[in-house]
Amino acid sequence: MALGLAACAVATPVLAAPPTPPAAEVVVVLNSGDASVTLIDKATQLPIGSYPVGKEPHHLMATPDARSLIVANAVGNDLVLIDPLTGKMQQRMPQIDDPYQIGFSPDQKWFVSNALRLDRVDIYRATFDDKTRSLKLTAQVPLPKTPSHMAFSADSRLVFITLQDSNEIAAIDLATHAVLWRMPVGNAPAGIWMTPDDKYLLVGMTGDDYVEVIDWRQRKSVKRIPSGKGTHNFRPLGDRRHVFVTNRVSSTISIIDQVKLEKVGEIAGLPPGPDCMELTADGKQLWVTFRWARKVGIIDVASRKLIKTIPVGRSPHGIYFHTRAPLI
Description:
The protein is mainly β. It has strands spanning 8-9, 26-31, 36-41, 46-52, 57-62, 69-73, 78-82, 89-94, 101-104, 110-115, 120-128, 133-142, 147-152, 158-163, 168-173, 179-184, 189-194, 200-205, 210-215, 220-226, 231-236, 242-247, 252-257, 262-267, 274-279, 285-290, 295-300, 305-311, 316-320. Strand 3 (36-41) and strand 4 (46-52) form a beta hairpin.
C-alpha cells in the first residue's frame, strides 16, 4: 500500500520473537528464499537458530546509533529492527513499500529505499535516537527501470542509483528530490561504490564481467576494470585503499585497488553465487553469502582461501555482524 507524502512509518510491537541466543555475538544472515533470518554464533561458527522475519528479506544495515539492525523485507513491505548483538527482534515498521536496497546518507538525515519492483526510489526523513525511531516519507521518485543499489556523495547532497534493467545510473538531489541526471553504463548494473576520495563511482556489471569506473562530476565512464562474470557487490577492506567485489557467475571475488583503479587480486574456487560480504574487525576473515548454495562461507584473507562453509536457508543474501571492519 502506498503512503501519502506526509505519512510516517510507526513502529509497532512484535508479536513473535526469535529463539534466545547465547551471550556471544551473532552473525545475522538473511534467507531471501525462506523469508527468514539465520543466526550464527560468530565465535564457534555454528548456526544457533532461525526465525521468520518477512517476505524476501534482501538487504540490511545498522541504524546510525548502532542500536538496531534494519532488515528490509521487499515483498513484505516492511522493515524489521533487530538487536545487532543478539539477533533478537525489536520491532516492526510497517507500510514501507518494496524496500529492496536501503541506505542512510552520511549526515544521517535521509533514509533511502529502492523499491525495485515498483521502479521507484522513496526518500524518508530519518530519526533514530534514544527516544525516537521513525521514518517520514518525503518523496517518491519514479525511475525506470529496476532501481537496485545506491551510493552517496560525501556531502550527503546526492544519492546515486543503479537502474538494473535500463542499464543506467541516476543521480538524485536529496534536498529537492529531483533527478538531476541519468547516464548509460554497462549491462545490468547492480552494486555501486563511492571511492574514499569521493571522486569515482565503481559500478558492478552483473550482466558483464567488469567494474565500470564513473567520474560522476563529469558524468562519464573513465575505465573498465576486468573482474569476473556477474560482477555484483562491494565490501571495503577498511584500509581506504582496497575493496572486494563479488562475481556471482564466475564464483570468484576480485580485489580492487581504489587508487590505481586496477584489479590486484582474486579469490577463486568458491561455491556458486557469492553475493554479500562482511569483514571481521581485524581484517582477517571475510564472511560471504552464496546465493545458489544455501551456505555462508568464511575466507582467510591472507591466504585468500575458503576455510569453512556453514549451512543456512534458501538464497542467503544480506549478512551482518556488529564487530566488523570500517565501511570505508
